[in-house]
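Researcher: Let's continue the batch. This sequence belongs to NTP pyrophosphatase, house-cleaning of non-canonical NTPs, and it's 108 residues. Same format as the previous ones, please.
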Amino acid sequence: MTIKEAQQLVDIWINKYGVRYFSEMTNLAILMEETGELARIMSRKYGDQSFKENESPDSLPDEMADVLWVLLCLANQTGVDLEKALIDNLDKKTKRDGSRHKNNTKLK
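Model: Same format as before. Here are the structure tokens for NTP pyrophosphatase, house-cleaning of non-canonical NTPs:
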């Protein structure tokens, strides 16, 4: 699935089941909430915290998908083609950081 196809699938789902998109500000708040949930799982699975009884490391893919879902919603609402944006962003990073990380002694 391409990113463009993912944006289209989210839009179809929203219009079929979700009635309408939440406002952009509400979706931004939801994105922060979902990012926090992802951070909680990451800190327990890869960091120093332990899981609570009702938490599962198996929820990592679902939490990542939740973050992606809301980001796709925001892109649809604001007219951003995320596929093009990612390609442009990779080009920017390549031009800016093409040798920077290779020359960083902290990464060796």
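Researcher: Any comment?
Model: Residues 3-83 form a domain with the Helix Hairpins fold (CATH 1.10.287.1080).
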